[in-house]
Amino acid sequence: MLSVGARLAELRGEADLSQAEFAVRVGTSQSAFATYEKGLRETPLSVVTAACKEFDVNPTWLLFGEGAKRIADASELAARAYRVTRNFVKDTPVEWTSEMEGEFFLLSFRYLTEHSNSSDEFLNFMLEKAVANAR
């Protein structure tokens, strides 16, 4: 798994910025930022927070390498999880409660944050298996 510094380097590369330019945008010096990228020093929370705000990055991804990289991506995944879950609930002959729908939405969203390339059909298949196991 990549370190916070490696993920910062990835962000910097995507933004096509030099270390000095990126450092200014996250409120640190180029020399300090270089040590974070190389993993020689722990990245301060102030830099992590600034990077998340400046580049619309999901803090969970930046800190732990989990979930969607971008906040916008997470919103899109939530919308997709909602749509798939809503259609599944509508098409499945089960007496649904709002709590059950919420649990299935969370299941869908959590799965998509780790497997965003999965098809809607596969997500439906997983939901079918979850319903079968719940009975």
Mean pLDDT across all residues, rounded? 91
Q: Could you say which overall geometry the principal axes of the C-alpha atoms support? A: elongated
Number of helices: 8
- The number of distinct structural domains comes to 2
Q: Structural class of the secondary structure composition? A: mainly alpha
What share of residues is helical? Answer: over 70%
Strand content: under 5%
Uncertain stretches: none
Regarding quaternary structure, what we see is: single chain
Q: How would a crystallographer describe the biggest sheet?
A: none
Number of strands: 0
Elements, N to C (H/E): HHHHHHHH
Rg calc: 19 Å
- The CA-CA distance between the termini, in Å, is 38 Å
Label this structure with key terms.
135 residues, DNA binding, HTH cro/C1-type domain-containing protein, mainly alpha, Cro/C1-type_HTH, Lambda_DNA-bd_dom_sf, 434 Repressor (Amino-terminal Domain), 2 domains
Report a brief summary of the structure.
The protein has eight helices and no strands. The chain is mainly alpha-helical. The two termini are 38 Å apart.
Written description of the protein model:
By secondary structure, this protein is mostly helical. It folds into two domains: 4-64, 434 Repressor (Amino-terminal Domain); 71-134. 72% of the residues lie in helices and 0% in strands. Helix 2 crosses helix 3. The two termini are 38 Å apart. Residues 8-62 form the HTH cro/C1-type domain. Pfam families: HTH_31. It comes from Novosphingobium resinovorum.
